[in-house]
Write the structure tokens for this entry.
Amino acid sequence: MTTQSNLKFNFQNKNVVVTGGARGIGLQLTRQFLEAGANVAVWEYSTESIETAKSELAAFGSRVHFQQVDVSKFESTEKAAQSLPFAAHILINNAGITRDKSFGKMTHEDFEAVIDTNLTGVFNCTKSLMPKFADTPDKRIISISSVVALYGNFGQTNYVAAKAGVIGMTKTWARELSRKGFTVNAVAPGFTMTPMVEAMPAEARKTIEEKIPAGRFGKPSDIANACMFLASEEASYISGTVISVDGALVV
Ligand SMILES: NC(=O)c1ccc[n+]([C@@H]2O[C@H](COP(=O)([O-])OP(=O)(O)OC[C@H]3O[C@@H](n4cnc5c(N)ncnc54)[C@H](O)[C@@H]3O)[C@@H](O)[C@H]2O)c1
């Protein structure tokens, strides 16, 4: 017997927290969840990105709520969780930075800055939000890792360590939190055209693009679509996994 598939996402009455949600992949996630009917709280560090995103998303009115948060600081995520305007159903841990240098040149400061935001940040946001989740059986924690966590990368000791750590935490939380009504998953984007990638030298971008079997960089919507699927009812039995969205860069 077959049943009809209904993969048009509807997140009406769902409350989503998107970290780093005012730029790049995060902004796309914010927009797509709003378009699908959700309420979204954006936890974002940059006041400049908040202002730009506010005007871009003005049409969604009070369904989008901006909070200035530094995910690397637990006091900051605690404060944000306390003033959250709703009980959350979905957390997308997306905020991230790079500070690329060869291992020889990488300082402890470079290492710690990336670990603090990209790994401890995921711990902080998830920890602070835990008591603020709705008491429902369909809760979601989705963290943005990276394909480089799966194969390593030149100049990214700090970033790869953090993103591999995110995968480890994802698998651990999937085990610990499944009985509490959560699915916990990671998405591993390949190279995706956002300000983070636009900041790379043109020559380096060209070299990378030639290595992508799909022949193009990812779009922020490619990543957001995977997150929306994992957040949907249809993905309720998927937990503890990592979905690569990378145009076959890592096979
Ligand atoms: N773009 C890519 O090719 C790519 C590939 C793999 C993984 N990723 C990951 O996807 C996520 C989004 O990347 P992007 O390309 O959209 O980056 P981006 O730099 O365009 O956006 C990141 C957002 O996170 C915010 N942010 C940074 N530090 C923060 C902090 N301490 N507290 C709160 N917000 C903070 C920034 O202000 C920015 O708005 C990141 O975790 C990144 O590591 C990106």
User: Anything to note?
Assistant: The two ends are 34 Å apart (CA to CA). The chain is about 40% helix and 15% strand.
